Automatic annotation (TrEMBL):
Residue ranges of every copy of the Amino acid transporter transmembrane domain listed in the record: 50-446
Keyword Calcium: no
Protein name per its UniProtKB record: Amino acid transporter transmembrane domain-containing protein
Top-rank taxon: Eukaryota
Source organism per UniProt: Xylaria grammica
UniProt keyword Transmembrane present: yes
Length: 472
């Protein structure tokens, strides 16, 4: 019998930790003295290794259930109910494997903090700069989407009580303040609040569209039945943009490197992953199916506006904390990446020195400003979501993980190349190729969608005071 490879031993260590009865390792602040990424962790600085496995579940789910779930019913309208569910399940399976591969890769290479470190191992300095730049750009774009969603919520709750540009600025200021909390361990409680808030809001809308006579956008006179489609007939740009929106709903993947890096016991990562992905997928299928079934082509994007003015106010009011926490996380992630990249190897990363504080606020402030400009420049929610999902969400969630498996397993000797090895090679290559296709095709479809939205009379303009809660 062939001996197990080091990679297989690590994967085996992950699986028991996911389902066994082991208690989570209680690592106190004093016991953590050195980390491969953060260096010496002392009482004088932030404890970066303080996220438990339940907190990890909250962070994983909150990086995904937020903006993406609000566009799923509209994606089902484009693709049709059955193709929409099939695409969603396929994306869920591939991204879950990608997420699992992150855990395996991190335990095999403890010095890896973010996707750029993996890129450097596989492709050298070019890989580091490419993936690092893509990582920052991706999360900054998502932060822009988050600010846009907060402005929509504030407009809905206040009945357009102020200029939309003001609401976007308010979202930026609040996001900056909360994102400046230095560790994910201290943000975990916010993640739980935000997760329950967004779930209650979307299920409120789901129930409301089921009990109401018709959706808010449907004709209000005469008999009405839902015009939902079992199979849609979209053009290529429409179909690929819809698929990109679903990819975006699962594209929290690049954040999982940072999340596992701040876990107290990374061996429990898979347990958190299984719980998180199961909850996310059940939520997406339930909400997407029910809302689209009852609303048909009159579904709103974001979906919280599908059940009428009163329910929209209630839903957005409940969802506002969740949307705020999403924006907080997606500002925090690129800011933390930049901080670690700039201060890694120095005492200023893990100690509360003046240089540490100045660097940290500069990172969170810089990310916030760029995201604010993006949110004000592309104020079309569905178009921005599909563009981010296509251009960078797929690139961060598909191709690197296929390459990571090949990097750690390609060099097996001939005697160790079993049928499973050949199958995994095929699957890894498929993930890379399919991800590349979605990146190119989805970006094209999303750009076409954004251009079309500006041509329509209901489209909102850049840097506008117009009410975006009724026009997106």
């Amino acid at each position: 019998m062939n001996s197990l490879s080091e990679k297989e031993k690590i994967a085996g260590a992950l699986a028991p930790a996911a389902f066994g009865d082991e208690l989570e390792a209680q690592v106190s602040h004093d016991e953590v003295t050195h980390d491969e990424v953060f260096g010496e962790i002392t009482q004088s600085g932030p404890n970066y290794r303080n996220v438990g496995w339940l907190g990890t579940v909250a962070l994983m789910m909150k990086t995904q259930i937020g903006l993406g779930v609000l566009s799923i019913p509209a994606a089902f309208d484009t693709l049709g109910l059955v193709p929409g569910i099939v695409v969603l399940a396929t994306v869920a399976a591939i991204t879950t494997w990608s997420d699992y591969e992150i855990g395996v890769f991190k335990l095999a290479h403890p010095g890896v903090y973010s996707i750029d470190d993996a890129g450097a191992m596989m492709f050298g300095s070019v890989g580091r700069w490419f993936f690092g730049g893509a990582f920052c750009l991706y999360w900054i774009l998502v932060a822009g989407s988050g600010m846009l969603s907060i402005s929509i919520a504030l407009n809905a709750v206040s009945t357009h009580g102020a200029c939309t540009a003001v609401f976007v600025a308010v979202a930026a200021v609040v996001g900056f303040g909360l994102a400046s909390i230095r560790t994910l361990g201290r943000i975990t409680w916010l993640a739980w609040i935000g997760l329950f808030g967004i779930l209650i809001a979307v299920f409120t809308v789901t129930i409301a569209v089921g009990v109401q006579d018709r959706p808010a956008a449907a004709p209000q006179d005469g008999p009405w039945t839902s015009d939902f489609k079992i199979v849609g007939n979209p053009s290529f740009p429409e179909a690929i943009a819809a698929v990109s929106s679903i990819v975006f709903a699962y594209a929290g993947t690049p954040a999982f490197f940072a999340i596992i890096s701040e876990m107290r016991d990374p061996r429990l990562y898979t347990r958190s992953l299984v719980c998180g992905q199961s909850g996310v997928t059940v939520t997406y299928i339930t909400i997407g199916t029910v809302v689209y079934y009852f609303c048909g082509s009159y579904v709103a994007s974001p979906a919280l506006g599908s059940a009428g003015a009163l329910v929209k106010k209630i839903a957005y009011g409940i969802a506002l904390p969740g949307l705020t926490v999403t924006t907080t996380l997606v500002i925090h992630l690129p800011a933390k990446y930049i901080l670690v990249r700039a201060l890694r190897g120095s005492r200023h990363l893990a100690e509360s020195t003046a240089i540490h504080w100045i660097s940290w606020f500069s990172c969170t402030g810089g990310v916030t400003i760029v995201a604010y400009v993006i949110a004000s420049s592309i104020p079309v929610f569905s178009g921005l979501v599909s563009l981010v999902g296509a251009l960078l969400g797929t690139l961060m969630s598909f191709q690197p993980m296929g390459c990571m498996w090949l990097y750690d397993n390609w060099s097996k000797k001939g005697g160790e190349r079993t049928w499973r090895w050949y199958w995994m090679v095929f699957f890894s290559v498929f993930v890379v190729v399919s991800g590349t296709f979605l990146t190119v095709g989805g970006t094209y479809g999303s750009v076409v969608s954004i251009i079309d939205s500006y041509r329509e009379s209901g489209g909102s303009g850049a840097w506008t005071c117009a009410d975006n809660s009724n026009s997106v």
